[in-house]
Specification:
Elements: H1 17-26, E1 30-37, H2 44-50, E2 57-61, H3 66-73, H4 84-101, E3 111-120, E4 131-138, E5 147-155, H5 160-180, H6 185-191, E6 201-209, H7 218-227, E7 233-236, E8 242-243, H8 245-249, E9 253-258, H9 266-279, E10 290-297, H10 298-301, H11 309-321, E11 325-329, H12 334-342, E12 349-354, H13 355-361, H14 373-381, E13 386-391, E14 393-394, E15 401-402, H15 414-421, E16 426-428, H16 441-450, H17 463-470, H18 478-483
Parallel strand pairs: 1-2, 1-3, 9-10, 9-12, 10-11, 12-13, 13-16
Antiparallel strand pairs: 3-4, 4-5, 5-6, 7-8, 7-11, 14-15
Length: 484
Amino acid sequence: MEVTLKGDKEFDDIPSLKTKALRINLNENIYGTFAEIGAGQETVRHFFRAGGASGTIAKAMSAYDKDFSDAIYGTEKDGRYVTEARLRKMLNHEIKLIETRLTRDKHPSKLFFSYANTVATIDFAKQYKGHGWVGIKYQVEPNQEYNEIILHIRFKETDARLQQETLGILGTNLIYGAFYKYNVPKKLLRYLYDHLDKDQLEIDTINFSGPVFKDVDNRLMSLQLVKNNMTDAVMFSPDGNNVLPARVLYKKNILALRGSFRPVTKVNMDMFKKSYEMFIKENKVDEKNTEVIFEITLSNLRAEGEIDEQDFMDRAKLLCSLGQNVLISNFQEYYKLVEYFSQYSKNRMGLAMGVNNLVDIFDEKYYRHLSGGILEAFGKLFFKDLRVYLYPMLDEDGKTIITSENLKVHPRMKELYKFFKYNGKVVDITDYNTDILTIFSRTVLKMIASGDESWEAMLPEGVAKLIKEMCLFGYEAEEVIVKK
């Protein structure tokens, strides 16, 4: 009997939910439990209705009462229930029960799984749209270590019943994909939206782990979420795993730096350090409650044409190695980035940027799609406690240093610029290093490609070593070059 599951060939027609559930049910080896909290038993009902569920479902449950839930899964330190920690406890607990209650002597070929979700749907006042954590822990070989797929969702619909139905569809897609699409994770990700629309559901965090996903880099999977328009922004932490932006940004003071970081240069790090020193001295800014975010926009990643995933991974690895939280966003305009941050925090925000970026902000062409034009965008950008920390630029003449005092915007924008400048919304970084103003990432890249070793002096301490050790940005070690 062949137990190992293989990935499907491509189908022109998307299998129906009943077809997906029935295929799982009729596989005599797949067997496990469903534990769903907060939106009904919406996923498991698809499997009950499809027929043959007794061959798949060992148990289905909903511990709705908080005391019951705590008695089964334990309490959370923060007292919350719709969290990643709670979902992991659910998955681990249910798998442990399966292993305890179903012996391998009796079920030698079974592929055990546990599907779980913990969800809060829209409230009666319709002010809080709802969100949740969804996951599956499962095997694709008997006795093999377990694999996990864990994701965070945000509901976009404004009706609780519709949200419940959406959750059931997503759960069915996830279980089917986990067993039949695991060998192509990028496709598995897209198939999560089978029979769903992007305006029903947002997936803003996903992590794969386990033996079948040992070669999957979750940072690359987070990039797929943005590329596929499943979400507008994703975040990953220094350890390389995707993290929920809300968890990092909630009620924090936020300082963001946008750049290509291709690679990180002395200018980038000087801008970061100097703007950070200024930011934490601001009124109402508590250093312990401050997050620094290095942001790369999708438009930046597409600057050279189609997104080069290896190039993206090089930037991601380097920034993570420097201990930074990285945000990949679909926000070309800065006001959209600020709007995004404002979902999670009303505290003070800062943007550190170079002169060229600030000049672009005052370019009307980026706001023609808005009914209120540039004034609407600026109302969103500078509406509260936001401040721009401006890093100077050396003019083309190689002598003049351009700051907020002498930069040139379009003549129609002069008075608008003066308004924000003289109301303290644009602040110059003054304590900068004049010796590094001629450094540009694009110059460093060309030097790396040509073998000109002087590029190393243009990067912060330790960065050149990391690039060499990890062979980033096309760098080739000497021994490799010799062999060629």
